[in-house]
Amino acid sequence: MAASDMPREPQSPAELSAVLRKLREAMLDAERRDVPDEPRVDPVHHEGARNLVHYLAFRKNDVRPLQQGLVRLGLSSLGRSEAHILPSVDQLLSLLDPHDSSGRFSPGDASSDPASAIDEAQDRLRANTDRALGPRPAGRRTRIMVTMPTEAARKPEFVRELLKRGMDCARINTAHDNEAAWKAMVHNIRSEAEAAGRECRILMDLPGPKLRTGPQPSGKAGKINLQVGDHLILMADLEAAAKPPPAGSLPYVGCTLPDVLERLRPGERVWFDDGKIGAEAIKVGGGEAELEVTAAPRGGTRLRGEKGINVPDTDLHLSSPTPDDLANLPFVAANADLVGMSYVQRPADVHRLHEELRRLGAEHVGVVLKIESAKAFARLPSIVLAAMEYPVAAVMIARGDLAVEIGWERMAEVQEEILWLAEAAHIPVIWATQMLASLAKTGLPSRAEITDAAMSGRAECAMLNKGPYIGEAVSTLDDILRRMSTHQDKKASLLRGLRAWYT
Fold first, then answer.
1. pLDDT digits over 294-308, tens only?
2. C-alpha atoms less than 13 angstroms from C-alpha of 63 in its C-beta half-sphere
3. What is the three-class DSSP state of 104?
4. Which class for 52: exposed (0-12), middle (13-18), buried (19 or more C-beta within 10 A)?
5. CA atoms of 431 and 125, how far apart (whole Å)
6. Predicted local confidence at residue 100, as pLDDT
7. Could you tell me if 217 and 224 are in contact, meaning their C-beta atoms sit under 8 angstroms apart?
8. CB 90 within 8 A of CB 24
9. Could you read off the pLDDT of 64-106 as tens digits, one per residue?
10. pLDDT confidence of residue 242
11. Where are the extended beta strands (E) located within 137-276?
12. Under DSSP, is residue 400 helix (H, G, I), strand (E, B) or coil?
């Protein structure tokens, strides 16, 4: 049903019922079309996959006029129905037209009614979250995940302190340190959690395709000074890029993935260093691309080696997991509860990782989909359904690269949409990147960080990165999440009694 088919601001119960029935039929049509009789997803995700298909069909439409009409009658506006969209619609139909029992909710268990189906959907999300991230901590719904620094391998007391302050999950990034350090980290996390009588799930990230600048750009001290209007050369030859440029030539920097230079086209954007420097391709060919800087801090900035590159307009067809990922996977499969899939782009990537886990006898290891590119976001429903073929799945909103790829102004909108889609699928979300970053690094948070930390309570897990003051960051996040858990549950406002203005 197209948005133009929707009645404008239906007012009477009969008009509202008619609109709801059209939406209901569109959801059931989508189910008949997109949900096979023999589901490929794991049995624990069958109802989540079915609800996801319903939700996507429902959200094709602009239902704001319908919402306004429902609110006028004191009914649910469907603004909190992601996890149970079909039973929510049927519950409204039963209230609007209690004498018509046709076309009501018919889940797999014929004895269920819409009210119990709503409860069951919320229970499934909680169960899938427990399965992936461990039991819910007392006093708050959202788990706290912490990225382990090298110190966690040397000092068990460091891990002990993080657990004491409120860490529920630990993340080990295999892009850093080595197997000996990872082994020591795993040992310290497991032993300290056991001593504390706690569970602490371990996520190990695979680095994925490394799209970065080469080890040392040409220029003084391995840095290039750039400002808007400057030109530079991006090169596939890392060795040549590290040598001083000939007199009068443009500065150049290497690119760790030569495929970028083969697929980049004039007019496409190139971002460096988490979006600090923006450029546009002017000429491409011969393993090189001439770029013009289009965005940089006033007065210019320096581009160094080993900095990230984003090409949001370029279809790279990158392979994930990479050979390096596969080399690390046996250790991850033997030691971790969850594997983080970096730079996932398409369902085939997930299928390949599942095949490798199956080969290693590690089907129990959950897959965390790190959504960090525009293409992954565009394909998110099919990527999520691929991950649901195994019992443990989660989504990570990797907001650093994702913000660069989609544009900073869209980040708030996109992270909301990811939260909605994952809830519709009944799988947990990890809210990641720059959470309380200033506090972890300097000991002092910004006001915006505190608000961001409060918003993270809408996810099932909030992830902190490492820093000298990471312990203080864990305590602060724990305090914020406990306070907000009495005011907010996902999108629902909880009307706890207010004490601030009453004696």
1. 999 999 999 988 899
2. 23
3. coil
4. buried
5. 16
6. 67
7. yes
8. yes
9. 999 999 999 999 999 999 999 999 999 999 999 887 665 555 5
10. 79
11. 143-147, 169-173, 201-206, 223-226, 231-235, 252-254, 269-272
12. helix
In single-letter form, the type of residue at position 313 comes to: D
Instruction: Give the pLDDT score at 244.
Output: 80
Q: What pTM was computed for the model?
A: 0.91
Task: Going from the first residue of the chain to its last (503 residues), give the mean pLDDT of each consecutive group of 10, the final group possibly shorter.
Answer: 56 91 96 81 94 96 93 94 96 86 51 82 96 96 97 97 98 95 98 97 94 75 84 90 81 90 94 94 94 94 91 85 95 98 94 96 96 94 96 96 92 96 98 96 96 96 97 98 92 84 76
Q: Which of 363, 423, 364, 359 is nearest to 397 (CA)?
A: 423
Residue 303 forms beta bridges with which residues? 224
Question: C-alpha angle 411/414/417, rounded to 5°?
Answer: 150
- Using an 8 Å Cβ cutoff, are 259 and 345 in contact? no
List CB contacts of 143: < 8 A, sequence separation 6 or more. Answer: 133, 134, 136, 137, 168, 169, 460, 461, 462
Residue 201 near residue 463 (C-beta atoms within 8 A): no
DSSP state of 309: E
H or E stretch at 488: strand 488-489
The total of other beta-carbon atoms located within 10 Å of residue 323's CB is 8
- Helices H / strands E in the chain, number of each: 19, 18
User: What is the predicted pLDDT for the residue at 132?
Assistant: 98
Which H or E run includes 302? strand 301-304
Residue type, 227: Q
Residue 260: both structure tokens together: 């970028």
Q: Nearest Cα to 362, choosing from 345, 339, 388?
A: 339
Q: Is cis: bond before 10, omega within 30 of 0?
A: no
481 phi/psi in degrees, rounded to 5: -65, -35
The one-letter amino acid at 421: L
Peptide bond into 246 cis (omega under 30): no
φ and ψ at residue 39, rounded to 5 degrees: -65, 135
Strands 309-310 and 338-341: unpaired
Confirm if 213 and 255 have CB atoms less than 8 A apart. Answer: yes
Q: Which burial class, exposed, middle or buried, applies to 18 when counting CB atoms under 10 A from its CB (0-12, 13-18, 19+)?
A: middle
Q: 428: how many CB neighbours lie within 10 A of its CB?
A: 27
Query: For the chain, how long is the longest CA-to-CA vector?
Result: 86
| CA separation for the pair 28, 322 (Å, rounded) | 39
